[in-house]
Fold Nitrate transport ATP-binding protein nrtD.
Amino acid sequence: MKMPAMSQSEVHFETVSKSFKRRNESALLVLDQVSLHVAPGEFLVLVGASGCGKSTLLRILAGLETYDSGRVILDGQPVHGPGADRAMVFQHYSLYPWLTVKDNIRFSRQLRVVRDQLTSSDVEAASGRSDALLSLMGLSHAADYYPNQLSGGMQQRVAIARALMNRPKLLLMDEPFGALDAQTREVMHDLIRHVHQLEGTTIVFVTHDVEEALYLGDRVVVMAPRPGRIDSVVSVPFGRQREQDLKATVDFLGLKRQILHRIRETSGMKTNRDMLEQLSQQGSQN
Ligand SMILES: Nc1ncnc2c1ncn2[C@@H]1O[C@H](COP(=O)(O)OP(=O)(O)O)[C@@H](O)[C@H]1O
Ligand SMILES: [Mg+2]
């Protein structure tokens, strides 16, 4: 069942700049006049070399980081801080080790019960939601386990379920599968695509893995470092029904090569390789 369009956030970054002050050095310009639109219900992926400002951009959107100039507009309102309309999933699972899987997922709702004195029917509705999420994540059998009894992939599924619990309109994911092995990542890719289709939530997803970006995204935004900026935006032409075999097709590999090339060109990695080649040539002459 698809959620109504109301539950999807729209984002506008308008010439957003951000720098970090450094002691005894000039300030580091991490985002230089970044403009970006995320459409309601879009699955947008940011890629780029380490240090190009991906996490900073995501943290600004989450309201966890300030910015120096420009505007960040979420559903018509400027972003001034965190809110329940947004949820974030990080690379490290950050579950509460003393709570079971079920209670980790319900945790924020239970806090609200204490604070707002929600009625028992609210609590029942919440347990319906958490059961549905457990089942969606294939975790029903593990509802009473503790985090240390789970594999990395299972822990990250709990973290995603917890993020979805309050029906966020915007799901922010910062390299969420970065610590998982290749097979588990493939499973997670299909799972998060399924979740996106089912819930309709707008997703902004950060990764440095170009294959992951192309398999997941409706669009892939390539960022470049020093200063952090948007280099190019690729509309992914594969439709929304995707299967793992897609990754071996000529079109997929062509786009992957094109994006990798942009990342190398803009990040100075090419120069490093040229230097290595020069060094090895010098070595062979001696
Ligand atoms: N709180 C901070 N204080 C100072 N510098 C920071 C801070 N956070 C990030 N940076 C710097 O800003 C740049 C961009 O960081 P980040 O957004 O984490 O990049 P990415 O996620 O693309 O790897 C990096 O050079 C990083 O060292
Ligand atoms: Mg990062």
Notes: Confidence is low (pLDDT under 50) at residues 1-5. The helical segments are 54-62, 101-116, 120-136, 152-164, 182-199, 210-216, 250-267, 269-285.
